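Contributing: when you submit paired examples, paste them exactly as shown. First protein:
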Amino acid sequence: MELLHLFYITLFIVVLTKLLLHPKKQLPPSPPGALPILGHLRLVFTPLHRTLDTLSKQYGQYMFLKLGKRKVLVLSSPSAIEECINKNDMAFANRPRTVAGDYLSYDYTVLALSNYGHHWRTLRRITTTEIFSASSLLASSGVRRDAVRCLLRELYKSTREDAIGDGLLDTEDNKWFFGLLKDTHVPSLFMGPGDYIPIMRYFDVFKIEKILSGISKKRDVFFDEMLEKFRKETSVEKNSKSMLDVFFALQKENPEQYNNVIIKGMIVTMFTAGTDTSALTLEWAMSLLLNHPEVLLKARTELANNIDSNRLLEDSDLANLPYIQSIIQETLRLYPPVPFLVPHESSRECTVGKYDVPSGTILVANAWAIHRDPKVWPEPDKFMPERFMQSTQSESREFKFIPFGIGRRGCPGGGLATRVMALTLASLLQCFEWEKVGDGPVDMSEGNGFTLPKAQSLEAWCKPRPEMLNALSQA
């Protein structure tokens, strides 16, 4: 009997000690009915940003999900973003590992997918100081000018060769216009069935790993050939400095640290982050302008007041085109090209608000939901570029406008992206007249994917503006 009493006393002490030292975790609110193995996957429908916005309105700005084996924390308010990505920035500085990342990230050495540490800091410093600094952007302005003028030449050529009747052109017959950059996108941040249910990776039911392996090999051959070609051209005197010129110079100084794998990884990052997203934003912007002719007229007026009609605009002209820059900002608010910020992953247990977040939790911030929140943005569904004009900005937009992320893992190329998009949009408006196809509005339905494409590609009519014919012919 004494031994039994001793056993119960010992058990009580052990349980009490465990409760005192390891109290029950208070996880963020979560939808009920998580299934074994699947978790909350049954609740996930496309478009995902709208589905999770609906769930977050019911369960709060911090919402915890079990998606198969993955633990996911969904953020849907500026204060939640500030708490996690600002105050707990170090805890959420890593990236989750994925099936696609295993094949497409050069062993997670690329900037976008590498975990926080010395290697990541080195790559980040390079991009910040050598590629996206003010002086670097100025030095590379010629590259952007040449790229935009190539687009203008091709579009002008198409209108001359394929003119229909009154000289208008149906851009649906010229897929390159809004489709060229999209086709180069590599979905290296894609998460598939095997990321949530590991056994599916073993069987590779959907042949995802076979496809990714093929992409990886073809891409590597392409990049090797491209590097060899550009390396031969570095000895040729050029008027502008490209990204590869920077990398080759760094490689010459330190060949081990900046080997070809690292350079190819940086190219992957630039392609993935800067091509598809920019093309999508321009397509959304043109669609919005065609549906809002009063905004299009204001943009044309700004161009006429600041740019001579006998020349094509330059990168340096953007400082005098704040309204067109505001159109890009408002487009990014309404249709962020990546509706969720690139996922973070917690490297340790931490507390956000009053909730405990386990180590290894994937953090996704619903930028689309925050950009459409009526508590944050007056008339959030209205296309109103004026809200981004500096004269009307009365408060900080930090944590409220996050198309390029925020914190130490925010996109370092946001400034370049907005500059490229504004230059391209302004050039298209300066050189061509644009009209809708048909009498109804342009379809603004959203498609599915990691990025936010239009469900229906833009179809529009265009023709060169008479006053720009001479400049276009010499572009």
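Second protein:
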Amino acid sequence: MTKLKQITGNIASPKGFTADATHAELKFQKLDLGMILSQVPAAVAGVFTTNKVAAAPVILDKEVVAGGLAQAIITNSAIANAVTGEAGMNNARKTQRLLADKFGLLPGHVAVCSTGVIGRQLPMDKIALGISKLSAENGHAAGFAQAILTTDLVEKEVAYQVELGGQTITVAGVCKGSGMIHPNMATMLAFITTDANIAQPLLQATLSEVIETTFNQITVDGDTSTNDTVLVLANGMAGNAELVADSEDYLTFKSVLATVCQTMAKQIAADGEGATKLIEVTVTGAPDELTARMIAKHIVGSSLVKTAIFGADPNWGRVISAIGQVAPFEVPDIELTIQNDLVLLHSTAVDFDQAELSEKLKEKNVVIEADLNQGDKTGTAWGCDLTYKYVEINALYHS
């Protein structure tokens, strides 16, 4: 398989894409309105929240994805436009029309996303003024990553290139997410652009598959948002031959897309509200991948495990308890390592240096590996520790 190359770039790095961001006064000073624009209509794929209280933009974007083509994405932060009734739906459609009119697009080719406080209506005068400031020629592409943030502390971007059929294709991603993270999917928005040539049905199938082992394997606090959205635009401007399912070029593209999604998923987990550590849990020796992924995600989502990691407490009993809560079979032969230290063998405690392991648990990245010895399948999940700061942020969040 062709080697992937990570590049320094942003969401506008693939051929034919531009992006811009502006301050629409939804926030006090920071950028809060962003746009991604393709020179030509692009195949569009999307995966959305499973929360039954879906925000107006989610409902609208499902329509856009069903149409198969999109040429732009417009996103605001600060206000989620969720639980806003008919007025909220009308405002989402008006936002769609405003951007379409400005750039000469079909309204149905514009996806709309929002993130922020639930229950507030969008101030459409400010949205309209903000859209009027956006530019396709002189856009502030790097600012898009900032414009979509809420409680995030860092911007989250990634870009990769690979050669397909003699042509260099680029896949770039940008996302936001910090709290209310428990995919299917998370309180997250993720946008991916690519200049690869791929038909919409295959793009949708590929995204839906990749999501399961990337964004759907992160958790911060166990809550699923009303606005979760992942959108991919593929405009075909790299000039490669259309990708065919199961071909070598297609499998390479799928690998790049999975890498972009996994990188962003880990960035979100590491930037969880109040987090000080990224936790990675890998479960091996499972009879099937779903079981491995389910157990890994339950471990990383356990409040007891998360608080132990925050306190650098090598309390492996919390990990075993988490496994036993969700394993669909008896697990009498578990091997458990934490930060590469073996703490359990054949489901029996072994001697280890607790003080030394406690020091290792103070590191920024914590790795837990559990071998169930019940098969040959593997699953990985990512999350973060649970801190005093998380409580503080969410006790005060309503802005």
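If you have annotations for the second protein, write them as plain sentences, like these:
The longest strand covers residues 33-48.
The CA atoms of residues 99 and 131 lie 6 Å apart.
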